[in-house]
Write a structure and sequence with these properties.
CATH architecture of the largest domain in chain A: Alpha-Beta Complex
Helix content of chain A: 25-40%
Structural class of chain A: alpha+beta
Shape of chain A: globular
Number of strands of chain A: 13
Distance between the termini of chain A: 35 Å
Number of domains of chain A: 2
CATH topology of the largest domain in chain A: Phosphoribosyl-aminoimidazole Synthetase, Chain A, domain 2
Low-confidence stretches of chain A: none
Number of helices of chain A: 10
Strand content of chain A: 25-35%
Largest sheet of chain A: 7 strands, mixed
Oligomer: homodimer
CATH superfamily of the largest domain in chain A: PurM-like C-terminal domain
Largest interface: A-B, 67 and 67 residues
Radius of gyration of chain A: 20 Å
Chain lengths: 332, 332
């Protein structure tokens, strides 16, 4: 059965049943003109959309994976600010021929991510369109100070969580051969389809919040996102390409596909790992805090310094040779 | 010049310049992973999208009108809860050939509405798509209790602001003759393109907040939205069709087009007027408060009563005869 055969309000009731019960901070959830929340201390607010054939293809992922990813990319923005998510709204645009089962699976994916990261789908809007669009807006609360892009300091160590490049490796597999052939490739595809926002990682690190000066999630590519911190903090971010951790999954996939894993790590995007600029004397301790609490690896990949001639930018070195910067994801 | 020729980050900077400066409750606006807000008391949160060729056509309205309307329909949800808007995020999906001038005008429309209703465009996201989609999420704060759909009581008077049906009259003109011919028609088209969310009206009414039991904005049509209150409050909403205020603009347009203005008022949708269920002894005073503060007319169009046999619904009378209910807006 497709959406065009069904009464909208019945659908909304059905979808609401799939979602976990609202968390205590959500006093009134789906079903009114707006959701009502408990008082919020230091709220943060953002949005991010996934669009069919731009950000995903329905033949590459299940609706449940898509539901997870739609929330996860937004929850990642909360992680990048040092916040915990509270509630999301979901504005869906769906072609009228969309099967109701497909939408129910999408909601199961929302439910998975909401459950895992302790937030509530508090409202939404559904309309018809020519292509699938999932627009999520999210509100969370800071637990310490805001980890802004303009807070990095001269001398800061640059840390990165996880293994950048795996998501781009997974995307390349989907684009070139559609199905992963090895366990390495399977891991990369899963990283692309089911990104893990680093909420627990940043909360562990925030035990040393005074030492964390800036953060960003590397959703548009490590170098491109590092450039935002460089510009907004008016610093040079000096990145040592040899220090960028490449996982065996990423490297083996690159060998099989004849690709360069470093380019995936530098410019691939959609890793949803965090890049942190921290007091260099605390860098080791912060990495330990994250690794102990979550088992997510953390590596130092460079440092921040005052720019020569005020030219804030990212500098990339490999074997002590300056490398050209890769192009990052273009939204148009 | 179109979006595909331009650097995204330059565009975002340009658009941010068009917007008014963030209001004091927005501590950090556009340009980070998320916006940072001041502590919020009793926040409310919702979203609403406008999609090309579903909710609007670009040959019917200027991008500036579209920008206004995108924010206004969301601000209306705040009015319907009894809240004041604080901040919005805007997630834009645009075809790559979209002219940059067009998007700047859209932002001028966002700026107009943000200025008028004292809120801040605090963040956003832009991506390419086949059709234009404008997804807005909004956060506001209650100033009294939440005006929920489930709060109506047996005996409540049903009030409506403004003149329902004008928006549907305007839409019909756009659909049938594209340009309005008379001042009446022009007014209706403007009502459709530039809806006025009833923020100031509800704030005036909330001086008697104890007497206001439920509210909804009639965006999907008066009868359809009244049915939400009926269902959620488990009441019958008895509406007297003869009491529904039809403006001279709506009536004259109906005469010119050979249409029934009452059908527009009952089922047309997109009026963004408020329907309130209030203590009957306070109904006159509440209407006066709104009219005195804003010059927006308020009329009583019916009352709430306990349903016979628990069948909560809307009952419509005309000349003491029960009328069949019109079909309201279907989202699919």
């Amino acid at each position: 059965m497709s959406l065009s055969n069904r009464n909208e309000f019945n659908l909304i009731e059905r979808w609401a049943e799939i979602l976990p019960a609202p968390r205590p901070k959500v006093l009134l959830g789906i079903g009114d003109d707006a959701a009502c929340l408990a008082d919020l201390k230091a709220p943060v607010f953002s949005c991010d959309a996934l669009i069919e054939n731009v950000h995903f293809r329905t033949d590459w992922m299940t609706p449940r994976q898509l539901g997870w990813k739609s929330l996860a990319v937004n929850i990642s923005d909360m992680a990048a600010m040092g916040a915990l998510p509270v509630a999301v709204t979901v504005s869906l645009a769906l072609p009228p021929h969309t099967a109701t089962d497909w939408v129910e699976e999408l909601y199961r994916g929302f439910a998975d991510a909401a459950e895992r990261f302790n937030c509530t789908v508090a409202g939404g809007d559904t309309a018809k369109a020519g292509e699938i669009m999932i627009n999520v807006a999210i509100i969370g609360e800071l637990t310490a100070h805001a980890l802004r892009r303009d807070g990095a300091r001269d001398g800061d160590a640059i840390l990165v969580t996880g293994y950048p490049g795996e998501s781009a490796a997974g995307l390349t597999i989907l684009q070139t051969q559609s199905k992963p052939q090895t366990a390495f490739e399977k891991h990369c595809v899963e990283k692309h389809l089911l990104p893990q926002p680093r909420i627990f990682e940043i909360q562990a690190a925030l035990k040393m919040h005074d030492a964390i000066h800036a953060a960003i999630d590397i959703s548009d590519g490590l170098v491109g996102d590092a450039a935002h911190i460089a510009n907004q903090s008016q610093l040079e971010l000096v990145i040592d390409a040899e220090s960028i951790p490449l996982s065996v999954n990423c490297e083996q996939t690159a060998i099989a596909l004849g690709a360069d894993p470093l380019q995936w790590a530098l410019a691939g995007g959609e890793d949803y790992e965090l890049l942190l600029c921290v007091d260099p004397s605390a860098a080791g301790k912060i990495a330990d805090l994250i690794q102990t609490a979550t088992h997510t690896p953390v590596h130092q990949i460079g440092y921040c310094r005052k720019p020569a001639l005020n030219a804030a930018k990212v500098l990339l070195y490999n074997n002590n040779q300056e490398m050209p910067l890769p192009e990052s994801w273009r939204h148009f």
